[in-house]
Specification:
There is one protein chain. By secondary structure, the protein is mainly α. Helix content is about 70%, strand content about 0%. It has 5 helices and no strands.
Length: about 150
């Protein structure tokens, strides 16, 4: 039968804020502070600790990169949609005669409120325009895989 190695005792001076954080963490986890301090020191001294941190950082950066790419795509879709609508509207809508224009201005507030309500319904219940547009549209307008 082999005897277990006895742990060595060590005194450490901690900043009051670090001690408070350690104490509250140990209380939340219902673990002794010495066990948590030992695990933290072991992790810090581990030869692969730097590689694990680097891998975790790279993973987070990749996630952020994908999110930014989606945001860029969504903003691009929004800008092009608005520009296309404005161009279409300006080229197809003739100016109204003055009596009709006054009546149209009088109805503009109600029509805008209806538009905002319809937009809100679409945003809440979908489908979103960005979901209707394929991710891999080529420059010539065709979709890859067609």
């Amino acid at each position: 039968m082999t005897a277990q190695k006895k742990k060595a005792q060590m005194s450490v001076y901690l900043d009051p804020d670090v001690m408070k954080a350690l104490s509250s963490y140990a209380a939340r986890r219902e673990q002794p502070m010495s066990l948590i301090a030992e695990a933290a020191i072991a992790s810090f001294l581990s030869p692969d600790a730097d590689e694990r941190r680097e891998a975790a950082t790279a993973k987070r950066l990749d996630q952020i990169d994908r999110r930014i790419a989606r945001l860029e795509r969504d903003v691009g879709i929004s800008v092009e949609t608005i520009a296309l609508f404005i161009r279409f509207w300006l080229t197809t809508t003739p100016p109204l005669p003055e009596p009709v224009a006054k009546a149209a201005r009088a109805q503009a507030g109600a029509r805008y409120d209806n538009f905002v309500a319809a937009l809100g319904r679409r945003l809440n219940h979908g489908p979103k325009l960005r979901q209707e547009i394929p991710e891999d549209v080529q420059k010539n307008g065709s979709v890859r895989g067609d």
